[in-house]
Design a protein that fits this description.
Elements lengths: L6 E6 L2 E2 L3 E2 L2 E6 L2 E5 L8 H9 L9 E3 L5 H4 L9 E3 L3 E4 L2 E4 L6 E3 L2 E5 L8 E7 L2 E5 L18 H12 L5 E3 L14
Length: 189
Amino acid sequence: MAGMTARLDVLSAGYAADRVASTVVLIRDGAAVIVVDPGMVADRRRILDPLARLGVDPAAVTDVVLSHHHPDHTLNAALFERARVHDFWAIYAGDTWTDRPADGFALSPSVRLMATPGHTAQDITTLADTGDGLAACTHLWWSQQGPQIDPLAEDQDLLERSRARLLALTPALIVPGHGAPFRPPETSG
């Protein structure tokens, strides 16, 4: 599909039970090499080894996106010392803090951010247009299995509105905060 050039690879599928790990994603789009939610994992090799298998040096990562500020999604951001770091309201690079709203911000031609509050007021989703359709890296879902009601949500009603706004974009793939990617029910088939 024209204009849909991003490639998405899950580096580590997360989980949340008696232990917790975030789902860590690599997105490549032209010169942009983006890691989403490099948070808690059992061992940093769970991020670094898949990167090496894909031929990506941590120093080549241009951008890190934090879906929100919980440690389980941010803990390993320093693995990518040359990357710009993006959150809901700014870009951080070296000693420069550049304010900007995340909603609609383009990291590359095929990757943009979307404000999706609910789990926290500061949550953002990374949207990547790929050859397989729109992929959404988001904490609007913990995993395909749930929970449907987010036990840590700051505002469940707002989370539901953010889910509806995202699903209106008809994503082909949801990459949840703590699980393997899945196809949303509305696009399954």
